[in-house]
Amino acid sequence: MDQKTAHLGWIDYAVITGAMCVSVGIGLFYRFSGGRQKTTQEYFSADKSMSIIPVGIALMVSFMSAITLLGLSAENYSYGTQFVGINVAYWIATPIICYGYVPVFFNLGAISAYEYLDKRFGYGARITASFAYWVQLLLYSGVVLYAPALALEATTGMNIVTSIVAIGLVCAFYSTIGGIKAVLITDVFQGGLMFISLFIVIFTAAHRVGGVGEIWRIASEGKRIQFDNTSSDPTVRHTWWGLIIGGMCTYLSLFGVNQVQVQRMMTLKNIKSARVAYWVNVFMLSCLSILTCFSGLALYSHYYECDPKVTKRIGSMDMLMPLYVMDTLSSIPGVPGLFVAGIFSAGLSTISAGLNSLAAVTLEDYIKPIYTWSSGHEFSEKQSIICSKILVLVFGILCIALAFAAQLLGGVLQASLTIFGVVGGPLLGIFTLGMLTESTNQIGAVMGTLTSFAFCMWIAFGQPRPVPPALSISADGCSNKTSDFVGKILQSEKADSYFYLFKISYMWYSAIGFIITMVIGYAVSHLSRIFNKKDADELDPDLFFPFVSRRIKRRRQHLTEIDVNLSLQKSCLPDSKYNNISKDRE
Q1: Residue 201 to residues 60, 324, 414: CA-CA distances in angstroms?
Q2: What angle (nearest 5°) sits at the alpha carbon of residue 381, between those of residues 377 and 386?
Q3: Residue 65 and residue 343: Cα distance in Å, rounded?
Q4: Separation between Cα atoms, residue 370 and residue 364, nearest integer Å
């Protein structure tokens, strides 16, 4: 099984270049068609002219990055199939988004999701949340560039600098000139390439071992088929409880209140279309997730007798999928290039989504308010669109720089991915606090968010922490036996010696952040009500979940009817009796 890793040929590079040119071509098309991206509504919201299927696919690919394709397949190879259970959480969370969060954002009609927090709580809450999102997504976009480039360099010979600069510049170019329309349509094309990449891996593996059933049999014998972990212990890495509860909170934070997804939803014409798009998204997301997980079993069927990490052919399990493609398909010109194009597309879809959303948030939450405050004038439409395009380009270049920073700072890769999960819980908490509760205020919302974020950061990055033991691997099929080395890497550390909170599974971080934000936010709001006179009766009912909004409207209608009756009765009732009725009304 030991062999020298093959490299990409000129035909492969031609295929990759062709795929990149398609994305650029889509950007050019939308630059010179339609409204030509001359208004911020068209640039950021496509004038609400998009159809359901492209938006549904775009929702799916926005956070299915190259890291997901490479990492999730490696997850199932190393730890088994328990992670597939997270798809149940996706289907449970989708109706909550459709009938809870979607109506609120759609009624608001704002480009920036964080404008909601301004209207509900105040500008302080808006800046707190948008800044956390700004740092989170910018850093993550840099990591999305770096991680696949590193894996591809080690396994295909593709230069890491070439990968980072090519993806970054192409993404910045078509996102800048084409706006949200170009981003959404390229997402559809790139999503197709992602599926093709997975089919290449699964079908070739099935052909080599004798069918899909044989892949399953080999995985079962290697104890990779795992769906039975129902432990309630939060320190267990993946259990049904953690995957469903933690997965729901993560999904709600990414698809319910995240600027990237809210902005995509706002390109549709009405709430009904947005709901259908979310159902298209969850169906496509589950299909891609399950295929990616099964691709990990396909990889195991090829390497189960000679693990490439043991033989030191790769330094990280994220390199496993591209290594497999080069080992098995390098003799077929163009096929490895098609696979790499799929990996690039996964990165392009995530980064382009981030660039457009970062520009929208920066313009709406920072530049416009500061300009209006300092000059006393509103930002003109022409100024807004020019500024938006400059911001997208600048953020694209900044992502490239951060990708190289991640290359120099090795620990930043894992840290950045963890931050992406840690920030989601507090952000979900502050939005839900505003939409679900009537009596919470800005002081409570900000305090709850900051406290939750600090606590989650502590338990996520506190040291020392145990390393989860992977399932057994083998080197029996290798020409050079490495059984002694295998025995060492399979030894698991005793977890009892670690601080309990540092042992908690990362799947619970989002749920913990959400709960802390809600509890502290609600408690502090009640303690500080004396300093904040603003209550739910002064707010727009549409800022709340529909069932809360209906309750507020019924209460206001009832009070209005009482006021009308009191005014009619005042002239004919004694003052003492009228005063008693007024007190009852209050």
Answers
A1: 21, 8, 26
A2: 110
A3: 8
A4: 10
CB atoms within 10 A of CB 385: 20
Is the torsion defined by CA of 230, 234, 237, 238 positive or negative? positive
Instruction: Check: CB of residue 372 under 8 Å from CB of residue 137.
Output: no
Span 10-531 CATH architecture: Up-down Bundle (1.20)
Rounded to an integer, what is the distance from CA 498 to the centroid of its chain?
A: 30
Q: What is the CA radius of gyration of the chain?
A: 26
Q: How far is CA 380 from the centre of its chain?
A: 32
- Maximal CA-CA distance, the chain: 104
Rounded Cα gap, residues 32 and 28, in angstroms = 6
Is residue 492 predicted with pLDDT exceeding 50?
Answer: no
The two three-digit tokens of residue 311, written as one number: 């033989």
Q: Are 238 and 507 in contact (CB under 8 A)?
A: yes
Among 8-17, 502-511, 562-571, 577-586, whose mean pLDDT is lowest? 577-586
Q: Which two tokens stand for residue 75?
A: 């997850």
Q: Among candidates 229, 65, 47, which has minimal Cα distance to 151?
A: 65
Q: What is the distance, to the nearest Å, from the Cα of residue 367 to the centroid of all Cα atoms in its chain?
A: 25
pLDDT, one tens digit per residue, over 368-398 is 888 888 888 888 888 888 888 898 888 888 8
What was the pLDDT predicted at 121? 93
Q: Is 60:251 a contact under the CB 8 Å cutoff?
A: no
498-540 tens-digit pLDDT = 888 888 888 899 999 999 999 999 999 988 876 555 555 578 8
Check: CB of residue 192 under 8 Å from CB of residue 287.
Answer: no
| Phi, psi dihedrals of residue 229, rounded to the nearest 5° | -85, 100
Question: Counting every residue, how long is the chain?
Answer: 586
Structure tokens at 305: 């007798």
Contacts made by residues 406-413, CB under 8 angstroms, sequence distance 24+: 406/142, 406/143, 406/146, 406/147, 407/146, 407/150, 407/160, 412/143, 413/143, 413/146, 413/147
Average pLDDT of the residues of the chain: 83
Q: Please provide residue 355's backbone torsions phi and psi, each rounded to the nearest 5 degrees.
A: -65, -45
pLDDT tens-digit map of 553-576: 888 888 777 767 767 666 565 555
- Kindly tell me the sign of the dihedral angle through the C-alpha atoms of 26, 28, 33, 37: positive
Query: Crossing angle, helix 86-96 and helix 271-303, to 10 degrees?
Result: 180
Q: How far is it, in rounded angstroms, from Cα 374 to Cα 366?
A: 12
Residues 6+ apart with CB under 8 A from 571: none
